[in-house]
């Protein structure tokens, strides 16, 4: 059952999105902040620590714009729908609380033969100032939804340097990580219901791709931007294989010559990429070599 390529240009919204300091804190915990050391990331995990201003893990912007999932793009099997790619562009640090208008547009429908990839773009505009906060592009892989004769799409070039990474950090997810992360808004039963996951071909519920994306974003802010969330301008990555709650993640990053862009790859403990072809854009600031 192929999707409908005529849905390109379909727009949903604007819809109001509200969040509070509590929502920002919950998201930070859901992507692992404070797990290794409860005192190491107080800017992400508390709002009232003396001398510590609250910050927001930048990838929270994707969650704020996520809404109810994909717009109507035709028929497809929801058990075979997975997150394929994610891009995020930020104009500055996200406020810990706020209201924004979210508008989502279907921008591309790619025919991969048997399967399809649907791209949507969501803009978040501050409701009080009309300032663009973030622009997020999401690629959804829809198994069995191709074969409609559309364009296959393209990928930007990407190649890691032939040298050791500038950053290498191993973090652990928790067995209940998906159950915690789903409280940020994504209630897809693929991440909680064993029967639903089995219909999708998984032995047990998998971790949300955006949880892996959030873990990676948080580590890169800490290690590359001196824990200053405002320095992160963009993050792009492709999800290549599932992560199960409880798995370890290894984040490796390579700086470019002018330090304005960083390439990264996140693997599991076996060295298999789970978030690949990663690119981070950084704003100028004091160089951060970690916490």
Automatic annotation (TrEMBL):
Residues 161-259 form the MaoC-like domain. It comes from the Bacteria. Residues 19-143 form the Peroxisomal multifunctional enzyme type 2-like N-terminal domain. One of its GO terms (biological process) is fatty acid beta-oxidation. One of its GO terms (molecular function) is (3S)-3-hydroxyacyl-CoA dehydrogenase (NAD+) activity. InterPro entries: HotDog_dom_sf (IPR029069), MaoC-like_dom (IPR002539), MFE-2_N (IPR054357). It holds the Pfam family MFE-2_hydrat-2_N. Belongs to the enoyl-CoA hydratase/isomerase family. PANTHER family: PEROXISOMAL MULTIFUNCTIONAL ENZYME TYPE 2, PEROXISOMAL MULTIFUNCTIONAL ENZYME TYPE 2-RELATED. This is Acyl dehydratase. It comes from Micromonospora echinospora (Micromonospora purpurea).
């Amino acid at each position: 059952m192929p999707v409908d390529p005529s849905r390109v240009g379909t727009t949903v919204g604007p819809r109001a999105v509200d969040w509070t300091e509590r929502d920002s804190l919950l998201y930070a915990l859901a992507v692992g902040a404070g797990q290794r050391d409860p005192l190491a990331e107080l800017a992400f995990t508390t709002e009232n620590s003396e001398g510590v201003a609250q910050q927001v893990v930048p990838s929270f912007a994707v969650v704020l714009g996520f809404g109810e999932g994909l717009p109507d793009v035709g028929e497809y099997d929801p058990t075979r729908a997975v997150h394929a790619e994610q891009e995020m562009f930020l104009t500055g640090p996200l406020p810990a609380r706020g209201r924004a208008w979210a508008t989502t547009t279907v921008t591309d429908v790619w025919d991969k033969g048997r399967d399809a990839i649907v791209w949507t773009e969501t803009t978040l505009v501050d409701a009080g100032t009309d300032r663009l906060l973030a622009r997020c592009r999401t690629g959804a892989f829809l198994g069995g939804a191709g074969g409609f004769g559309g364009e296959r799409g393209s990928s930007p070039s990407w190649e890691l340097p032939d040298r050791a990474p500038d950053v290498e950090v191993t973090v652990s997810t928790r067995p209940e990580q998906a159950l915690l992360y789903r409280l940020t808004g994504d209630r897809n039963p693929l991440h909680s219901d064993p029967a639903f996951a089995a219909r999708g071909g998984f032995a047990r519920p998998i971790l949300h791709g955006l949880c892996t994306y959030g873990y990676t974003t948080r580590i890169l802010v800490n290690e590359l931007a001196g824990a200053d969330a405002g320095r992160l301008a963009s993050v792009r990555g492709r999800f290549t294989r599932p992560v199960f709650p409880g798995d370890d993640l290894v984040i490796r990053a390579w700086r470019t010559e002018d330090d304005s862009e960083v390439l990264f790859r996140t693997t599991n403990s076996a060295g298999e990429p789970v978030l690949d072809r990663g690119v981070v854009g950084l704003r100028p600031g004091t160089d951060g070599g970690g916490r």
